[in-house]
What does this fold into?
Amino acid sequence: MCGSCGCSPPEDELSKVELIKASSNLLRGDIAGELTSEQPQFTDESTQLLKFHGVYQQEDRDRRKEARRLGLAKHHQMMVRTRIPGGIVSADAYLAHDRIATHWGDATMRVTTRQDFQLHGVLKGDLRAAIREINQALLTTLGGCGDVERNIMCCPAPVVDGFRAEVAHWLAALVAELTPSTGAYHEIWLDGEPAVQPVTTQAEPLYGPRYLPRKFKTAIALSGDNCVDVHANDLGLVALRGAGGSLSGFAALVGGGLGRTRNKPDTFAAVAQPLATVLPHQVVALSRAVIEVQRDHGNRAERRHARLKYLIAERGLSWFAEQVRSRVGFALGSPAQVSWPRVEDHLGWHEQGDGRLYLGIFVENGRIADTATLHLRSALREVVETVRPQVRLTAQQNVILADVSREQRATIDALLDRYGVEHAAAVHPVRRLSMACPAIPTCGLAVAESERVLPSLIREIETLVDEIGLSESPISVRMTGCPNGCARPYLGDVGLVGTTLGKYDVFLGGD
It folds into this structure.
């Protein structure tokens, strides 16, 4: 947006992506036509629109040098990201992703730091079949990426009490209100067949034809439990406990975002700032208003400055609060200061509160795979097939098995032992809190390794902290292959951010 009036900049000042969105016919573009083409890749325009549908076009960068030597084309492949609000996955949906990974992917599944599933290595010709199977399991990839509200995060611990039930209710309400309305997704991938929430609207009442200037992330933390890193989000909501333990309201934080560009000091990581406190029934209207202000005033000329954090930095939090206030039609409560005594990773066995149990299983860097030393994917598949638990994904890239009876506990423990899966108590504290992004070979933005090198580095760090007597200290180490911050390195005790192959900026003291 230009100046202080909030009007759109002239067409010749809009970024290329803005022009693609505006002419896309609500995210349709020519994706359907290109799906029938024999070309192994999509055009640049469709590649941008595919993100809204939960798909990133990538290449196997390990093959790049050899392909160049032989004069061959790039090995194009797709990453498919399922949007999973609060990280809650049924047993059927988990097994569906496992099947997709076998038939059309690279035989692995990845738990992201935003409680999504990512499937890597899907070829263009298999894309529609993979997305259909995800929808048949009552999940969707719509909004997994793109300039819209991304997956809404929430503490995944399946504790049964009234407070968490109320939070779950408002999470569902937010998902319903903030999901794009376009019918393009069902037309392209499902041929108009109804899915979980059939969408046929030919307009976007919240987003408009150009959608948002950039991606928008929301997370819900609970009083005393910030396992979702709520301060890293454009909109952070903290569910507050009132008298008797019920939900009394939400503290809203705005302007978080960790992406930055190296050697560009006008780009920066930022933590969300307290905006206001609202009653439970006001949280949807507040969230829509925050998105609307970003929609109307965010920077559409320079994508590097298009996130909400830059709008707040330029206009000020007071200006932003007034803009939100003018849209909601009710008084905003005073901002609440929130604090966190510790970070809960929800690993190990726990009581749910209803006589049943849940188990948090450590998944190093979120990669569910079978290796020479650890058959984690086979273990989880057999557990889910045998016990039929609900599966929940955590913001630390781990997996929770919920709704387990006491009789089933021994069965699960025996299966995990058989496949070599470590019990949580045996995982070193430094490793438990480590996180890495995928980086090379699949991410086109990566300039350095991350997921493939952090495991060996973490084991060296484990030895060091043991030698100096800090083995029980919860030190978090987070690594990314570029400054975009997918593994939230700027909020870790130690952040390692790739700057070029083999070199990293080191950040200390995040919290």
